[in-house]
Amino acid sequence: MWHFQIDHHGLWDYDLPAHPVLGDISVNGRRIKAVIQLTKQGFTFAFDRRTGAPVWPIEERPVPQSTVPGERTSPTQPFPTKPPLFTLQRSTEENLLDFSPALRKQALENLQQFVHGPIYTPPSEQGTLFLPGVFGGANWGGGAFDPETGMLYVPSRMTPDLSRALFNSSRRARHKDAAVRQRTAAGVARTIYRTALEGMGRSYMISGKQYIAVATGGGETSEIVALALP
Questions:
Q1: Does residue 36 register a pLDDT over 70?
Q2: What pLDDT, on a 0 to 100 scale, did the predictor assign at position 59?
Q3: Which pLDDT value is given to residue 200?
Q4: Which of 108, 70, 116 is nearest to 91 (CA)?
Q5: What is the mean pLDDT of the chain?
Q6: For the whole model, what pTM was predicted?
Q7: Which residue has the higher pLDDT, 106 or 63?
Q8: I need a surface site. Which of 9, 68, 180, 210 has the fewest CB within 10 A?
Q9: Can you give the chain as a three-state secondary structure string?
């Protein structure tokens, strides 16, 4: 039994989007029974599926750090050295469209409104534009391996996303009409929302007080709701 952490302290919704792909590959004349994991970041992680050893080196490289008060992000993230990326990995000026001088100027003005930079630039209070976004890179479609040619086929998309760190003490009051509160036997407040919950809740602590945050709804109705535990 083995494991590997694809990204540390995830803040970008870079969960693994699809099942891994199995394939027998040849590297420097050596046959390897590999397991291949595609990611939203555009990485392809390849491991010996029997031992968990990386097929090619995976380097821990420094990444940008958070400017949000109290947030401590991981100083490094794992970068596979092979295979090459299958999507762009940064929101920077050289990636902007340049179909005409006017469009280029507008794109530059839009970009300057937000924090931007290389992959793993953390969310910020100003708002961070990051690429790839939450839909990849790779996504639910995964990939396919051709055992005869040794080719790996990956459908990929390239859509940026915007992530902003929010601090709003009145958020609970704003959403009191959207919730029905019940009491458990232990006396802990449980909130059931009429809109669907999106994913697992998160627990965190500030100044000795514990909170739970959940994402609800979708699209224009989506909200992050934080509740204080008694």
A1: yes
A2: 98
A3: 60
A4: 116
A5: 82
A6: 0.71
A7: 63
A8: 180
A9: CCCCCCCCCCCCCCCCCCCCEEEEEEECCEEEEEEEEECCCCCEEEEECCCCCECCCEEEEECCCCCCCCCCCCCEEEEECCCCCCCCCECCHHHCCCCCHHHHHHHHHHHCCCEECECCCCCECCCEEECCECCECCCCCCCEEECCCCEEECCCCCCCEEEECCCCCCHHHHCHHHEEEEECCCCCEEEEECCCECCCCEEEEECCEEEEEEEECCHHHCEEEEEECC
Tell me if residue 98 is catalytic: no
The helix (run of H) or strand (run of E) holding residue 31 is strand 30-38
In a domain? residue 7: no
- Residue 88, domain extent: 21-163
Are 140 and 209 in the same domain? no
How many domains are contained in the chain? 2
Q: How many CB atoms are located within 10 Å of the residue 102 CB?
A: 8
How many residues are recorded in the chain? Answer: 230
- What single-letter amino acid sits at 153? Y
Residue at 14 is within a domain: no
Q: Are 197 and 224 in contact (CB under 8 A)?
A: no
Residue among 7, 13, 15, 48 flagged as catalytic: 13
